[in-house]
Amino acid sequence: MHITQLNRECLLHLFSFLDKNSRKNLGKTCRKLLEVFQDPLLWSLLNFHSPVDLKKDNFLLGPALKHLSICWYSERVKVCNTEDWMKNSFQKDFCKRHENTVSDFLLDVCNRCPNLLSLTLSGCGHVTDDCILQLLKNCPNLKSLKLENCVRITDHTLKAVTFHGASLQILHVDFCRNVTQAGLDRVREKCPSVMLRAERSANMIPDSKPEKRLMLEKASRKWVQL
C-alpha cells in the first residue's frame, strides 16, 4: 500500500510525528502530500530553537496556531542579553543582524494567529515591551505567557498584562532583570487570579548604568503609587 492511498486523517497523523523540515520535504513529493502539508490542522503547535528557524519556509502560520515556543539556548544568547552600553563593536554588529527577527515574527503572529493560547520565549534578548503589548491586544485568548531571560522586558509589559491580559492565567518573567518588584506587586494586586512567577527577576541588576539605578528605583516606586 502506497502512502498516498491513506486517507487525510491518517496522513495528518503521520505528518504530526515529523519535524518541520521533514514535513516540507515530504510535501514536495506530490500534490496530495503538499495539500496535507498546507492543512492548517497540522500547524496548531510550533517550536523554534533559533531565530534563524523563523525565516525558513518549512511551516505555516494561521488561525489554527494555538501554542508557540521560541527558545534559543546558545552561547550567542549571552551576547544579545548583554547590556547595550557594555557591548563592543563586534557584539553590536552581531546583534544588529538579527535584532528584529523575533519581533517581526511575533508581529506576524499578531496579525495571523488570533487564537493563540500560549507563548513561550526564552533567550529572546531583543523582544520589546511594545511587541508583547501588540500580542496581548491581538490574541485575546492568550492564557499562558512565559518569558525567560528576555532582558528588554520591563514593567511596561506587566502593566500591559493588567490592561489587556483578561484571559491570562499564567505569567512567567523569570530572569527578566529589568522587571522590578514594584511592577510584580502591581500585577498581583490587579490580577490576583494570574499564576505569577518571576524567578530572580526583581533581584537582578537592571541594564542601567550604576548612576541611573537609583533614579529607576524611585521611578518604579512612584509608578506603583499611581
TrEMBL record:
<dbReference type="Pfam" id="PF12937">
    <property type="entry name" value="F-box-like"/>
</dbReference>
<dbReference type="InterPro" id="IPR036047">
    <property type="entry name" value="F-box-like_dom_sf"/>
</dbReference>
<dbReference type="InterPro" id="IPR050648">
    <property type="entry name" value="F-box_LRR-repeat"/>
</dbReference>
<dbReference type="InterPro" id="IPR001810">
    <property type="entry name" value="F-box_dom"/>
</dbReference>
<dbReference type="GO" id="GO:0005737">
    <property type="term" value="C:cytoplasm"/>
</dbReference>
<dbReference type="InterPro" id="IPR006553">
    <property type="entry name" value="Leu-rich_rpt_Cys-con_subtyp"/>
</dbReference>
<dbReference type="InterPro" id="IPR032675">
    <property type="entry name" value="LRR_dom_sf"/>
</dbReference>
<protein>
    <submittedName>
        <fullName>FXL22 protein</fullName>
    </submittedName>
</protein>
<keyword id="KW-0833">Ubl conjugation pathway</keyword>
<feature type="domain" description="F-box">
    <location>
        <begin position="9"/>
        <end position="46"/>
    </location>
</feature>
